[in-house]
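ok so for the tutorial part 2 we go from a plain amino acid sequence to predicted structure tokens. step 1 is just haveing the sequence, like this:
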Amino acid sequence: MTRNPVPHLPRMPRRTVLGGAAALAAGLTLDGCGDGGDGDADAPRERKKGQKITLTFWSWVPGIDKPVDLWNRKNPDVQVKVEKVSAVNGEQYAKMHAAIKAGNPPDLGQIEFPVVPSFLLDNGLLDLAPLGAARHKDKFFGWQWQQSVFGKAVYAIPQASGPMGLFVRQDLFDKWGLKAPGTWDEYEAAAKVIRKKGAWIETFAPTNGNRFSGLAWQAGAKWYANHGDTWIVHIDDEPTRRMADYWESLVRQKLVKTIPDRQNAWYKDLQTGDITAWVGASWGDALLVGNAPGTKGKWRAAPLPQWKAGGQVFANWGGSTTAVFAKASYPKDALDFAVWLNTDPESIALLIAGGYGFPSAKKGYTTDALDVDKPFFGGQSYSKIFADAGAHVDTSWRWGPGVDTLYQRLGDAFTDALADGSSFRSALAKVQRQTLSDLQGKGLKVESGG
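step 2 — the prediction. this is what the tokens look like for a chain of 450 residues:
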């Protein structure tokens, strides 16, 4: 085994990594500190010329096997083995964290933007900056690249985003004389008309903290900030309260359902027309096509309703990265694969065909190429809707540690509120308290915002 000649890749105590991540977000450099680990036994390796290696890659992305197969054909010395992991209720992350704790994680993994900071808590990801990752920065949309950057440290390569929009059953909207709502006031008015017709505009899914955060993002919320090495947490800030009030009003008026989305009952409602719209994201085209095939040609995409008429304020739901785990044996090769996977035009074409989301790369595709399900949307060039949304995402939004736990907290709190009739604001206040406690329990410095 040869020693890696690239700059030393320091291992750091988790308290240093995210206890100081707030400082990193402010642009400070993270000091490399030893943690009493295994020393040279954990030193990353560089592949010898002609040496054949295999990298393991955990992912749930649909169709990921095809671009990986392409890589393997083009790179016989560096093979990548995909292991599919379940993305239901965060199962993939529980498995990844368990593997990190056991000391046997894969070389690479699919990790969504919001949960990248959580992996820094257990030193799970490799800082790719010493390997020269920053030279690839300009290949990606800036705000997406920054999702995995803390100071000078780069912890993942962006793959895809999920700019938000509104999917509507155009046939039913036309039948009832409705237009796609341009504002949230118009959305409520449409909901009232649709309810009188015996259908629903959609559902407030209590367990979907991911979508809820996107709606808060659009409303102007700032859940995480930093002051020095202290995380400022404000889950119940005023924009989030106003947005929660809006959805609570729809629930109390019985204008929306409250069943979970993306589950069997919801899919059935989509197919029967019982639910006629969905606040979703760019990757939702594949989801609708795959789960409501009988509605082909009847859907259209529209911009996300705005809080102010004429506004151009959008947000993101989902989006993921290809990250290299800290114990990767051949990190340079892993980085090369991650960059190729997400920038090579042939790879992007295969990922698009699989329905992976909106590419993070600036080049290598056209917006029209993303319209893989155009007949399902009545011939509409629907991806332009999401391209425009992506260009107007509020880039000041920042994720913090423990978001996977936060989503669980939000789901429990909203489920309880629907059951006992308590206010959504009280649910937010509860989650705020819990989040502060959760992060303090991880040894982080935290304060309540506002």
